[in-house]
Design goal:
The complex is a heterodimer of chains A (310) and B (593). Chain A is mostly helical and 310 residues long. Helices cover 70% and strands 1% of the residues of chain A. The termini of chain A are far apart. The chains are: A mainly alpha (310), B mainly alpha (593).
Chain lengths: 310, 593
Amino acid sequence: MNHNLTNIFQGMILIILSPFFMGTLNKIKALMRGYKGPSVLQVYYDLSKLSKKDTIRSGRSSFVTEYGPVMALSVAVTCSFMIPVIFVGSKNSLGNLILIVFLLGGIKLADALIGLDSSSTFGGMGTSRELFLSMLAEPVMFLIIMYLYFQYGTLNIFEITLNNLHMSTTTAGDILAFVSFFIVLIVENARLPIDNPETHLELTMIHEAMVLDLSGRDLLLIELASMIKFAIFITMIVNIFIPFGISTSFAIPLIIEAAGLFLAKVFAVLFVIAMIEVLIAKSRLFRAPDLIAVSFSLIIAAISFSRFID
Amino acid sequence: MLSILFNNGILFDNLSVFFAATISIVSIPILIYTLGYIKEYKDIYSLGYNIALTAILIVSMVLVVISKDGITFIVFWEIMSVTSFFLVIYEHNERANIDSGIMYLIMTHISGFFLMAMFAFLYQITGSTDFNEIAQSSNLISGNDIKTVFVLAVIGFGAKAGFVPLHAWLPKAHPSAPSNASALMSGVMLKVALYGLIRVLYLFLEYVPLYLSLSLVTLGVITAIYSILNALVQKDIKKLLAYSSAENVGMILATIGLSLVFKHYGLNTISLFAFVAALLHILNHAVFKSLLFASAGSVLFATGSKNMNELGGLYHKMKFATMAAFIGTLSIAAFPPLNGFASEMIILKSFILGSAQVPESWAAGIVTISGALIALTGGGAFYAAIKSFVITYLGSPRSVKAEKIHETPFAMKMGMGILAGLCILFGVFSPFIVKRLIYGFSGMYSAATIDFSVIEMDYEILMVTGIMLGSFIMIGAVAKLDGRKILRGDTWGCGFINQSNRMQYTANALSQPQTRLFSKAQGYSKKVKITSLIHINDCVYDTFEEKAYVPVVKTINSISSKVIRIHQGKVRIYVLYIFLALGATMLGVYNFG
């Protein structure tokens, strides 16, 4: 089978599963807190409810509100075709990490523009906070890519997965880079302790504030885009750092095994995120740079281990 | 003048042709734009003066980059400086413009002085002012002479390109000049200075010592980070863009320095790659920055204001200018597949390749940290670009000025449209440009040492563009055709109904969070006084200007106020001065003659 077709196929699976991941996260959190919680499929119901509603747009909004959500979703869809999920072939024409990171920045860009488009004060607040945090997270992401290049000699995420698969040892640098990437995941996807996705309180909102004025179809598109972004980040962290079990051929049993292992690994990551969200309170906005600084220090340490200390 | 040029011949090597092409690509749309833009000044200032000076500026820039001789280079360089000075003070009824013009004139003379000194010094060593002859006898320049030429070139070209701390004229002169001129000055004239620097560092000097190359990287990174932090707190849209130009110049300088570091270690392949990254960014920045200045100009034309806190909601009345500015913003925010992304990606890639391959750990460490700071600068550019676009064009009008809008002429739209098209074109087809540049400039290195397979860009960006466009159309069509109604309402205010436009986020508010971390470097201060009302007074200044320029100016002023006492206004005293001067001259002749 053509390798591009397989990428599109597994990207589709990721897109379809992304609300399921979000639902699972909510379910795990509910169980940890000791109540039953909504079904894991609840997020699908919410999305289909949104799709049935009419859309209200502010009279002050512009083309950004009209096309921004479409742009965000198309960027998310494009990115999901560029990463390995359960299968990695030997020949890949997509998957440049720098390109993926900048593309994902497009979702942020659409959100930020939408935030101020309807001249809502909440939106401005969300935009300025989001841009502030993403500015600080940028060097960390760059250093993670640099570390991966040192370690695996390539910038292509498929080749990184493949090279890591053939590597038998895990170094200290890998663990540090993993933790660093995990912090970036939390910052970029507006999870606790940076942002509380469950509330609409003006003191805590970042992501929700930007999309506060959207409704109906627009909200559906932007929510789906952020879910896919979340799923992409989890898939990246799983397949870059713990790729064991990912299939390299089209044998059916191998694919099934890879899919099972992938889900197990994703659930493990979701479990950790849920644990953090249950145990830790939202921190002040100006404490967030400290967390990013921790992640920066970790990745600098990882680079020092792999590049400068032999 | 032209006869001097033709007697000495014209330079047609790849470097000159590349820069001449960059200048032409940007100048043609800007000239078209100028024809519409100058209508703003009808009845106030002379229109012919503006067009004539713009044309002379463009011609002199082209002549600078194709000059083959140090003398013609300096002559055209000075013509370029003087014409741009007259463009800066074009709106001479405002005192502030004259002040910034004078500052620019002084800085540009400092630049000219150091360049003349550099060419004189080169003449002393090589016995020639011809560029090719200097390049051929570059082996004569050695040891301390290299350092001297390096320092003279970096100060001379740096004062013109805006390296920190010689940048202070930039955020003053560019907002003062009419927008067509600031588009040219920011987009292209800074690049002419970089052209000179590249020619000296790559062709006149046989090698650049490692510590000098690394200091160039450091200088570039400092320039980039300092300028972008200052851009973030501006509320004047043209000042923001001017600082952002200095940031991009810093990024290009860091990449050039990086290329020289690699050259020192004999890593010719990635040295060529970093060099091409710098050149590509020179081209791309010229295109998108002149587009952004042009659209800022159309805002100024339509509303008469460049203060973002007075603007807002311009989209509803200026659809075309907004779309052009939107493309420019996406480009400067490095959104794939636009051209800003294309060059930022290969700049970051050359930093990654570099820190992996530089053999000495300490140098590789500097490269790594510089790369991280360049990435931080990229994040800041993302912030600043979104700020300038969102506050100006989206939302609702913040003052009456943004409501009463003059229609912009077709020529302006056409100029911006061409530049916006180039932004997309140079981004999507960047792999072809990179390939062309790599093969074109590989002649600067010995051919056997270049491994083209490592650095040739793959065509991934074309595929990604295709996928993205396809999914955009598909999702857009599905979303449009689902048959649901679109209702119009007011913005949701959490139950609050008397929302006024003044309650929107302003330019100052949007950049508030980061001032907590960076206000020291930004020269940003805020005073809040709470009585029955809340008074907020914030001001922005340039730290270097306050700390370094003002004391120097004060010292010179105090000295000259003392020297001025010799002007007594009495004839007999002046006759005494003449006698004293004569005596001193005779003494000099007697002693040294």
